[in-house]
């Protein structure tokens, strides 16, 4: 099985885009597809690894949208965190510099202690410059946004106390697979 939105046919190509954790590396076999590796990681309970892998495999807008959809499954965000999520969603719909800079502002307000702040940070790291608007242009490192998306989804699954983490991970990864298959991530209700 291949995911229509993931441009890499083999899992090993995605693993070359970042430094994967030790847990997922022994699962890889030559010629394994992204779908096969995600399935195997899920079977082994390597949920965080599967999230980071899929975040790197998806194109930037789809990855950020996945983080937004996962964050939308929670109903315990404060006003600043909701602002960060809304800013990230706005960028997905209108991926311009104004939306990107607004997401930066909202990430700072929400802080990076939660998944909402990290999804807005992912938008800021999606392109453009990571310095101030009047400073010399410094582009973000490639795939830095994917690390932020992975962090967002992992924190959204785990916080506040980890009690619902496994159920959330299953739901969130299913949502990511739906997006990878060309869907919008809408698979059901909150965990």
TrEMBL record:
InterPro entries: DUF6931
Protein name: Twin-arginine translocation pathway signal
Organism, as annotated: Enterovibrio coralii
């Amino acid at each position: 099985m291949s995911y229509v939105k993931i441009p890499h046919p083999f899992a090993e190509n995605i693993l070359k885009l970042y430094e994967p954790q030790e847990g997922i590396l022994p699962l890889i076999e030559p010629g394994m597809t992204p779908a096969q590796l995600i399935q195997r990681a899920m079977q082994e309970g390597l949920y965080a690894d599967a999230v980071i892998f899929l975040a790197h495999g998806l194109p930037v807008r789809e990855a950020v949208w996945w983080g937004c959809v996962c964050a939308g499954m929670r109903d315990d965000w404060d006003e600043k965190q909701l602002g960060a999520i809304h800013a990230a969603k706005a960028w997905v719909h209108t991926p311009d510099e104004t939306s990107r800079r607004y997401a930066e502002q909202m990430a700072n307000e929400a802080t990076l202690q939660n998944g909402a702040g990290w999804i807005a940070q992912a938008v800021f790291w999606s392109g453009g410059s990571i310095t101030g608007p009047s400073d010399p242009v410094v582009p973000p490192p490639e795939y830095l946004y994917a690390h932020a998306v992975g962090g967002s989804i992992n924190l959204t699954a785990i916080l506040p106390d980890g009690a619902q983490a496994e159920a959330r991970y299953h739901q969130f990864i299913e949502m990511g697979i739906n997006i990878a298959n060309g869907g919008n991530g809408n698979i059901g209700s909150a965990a």
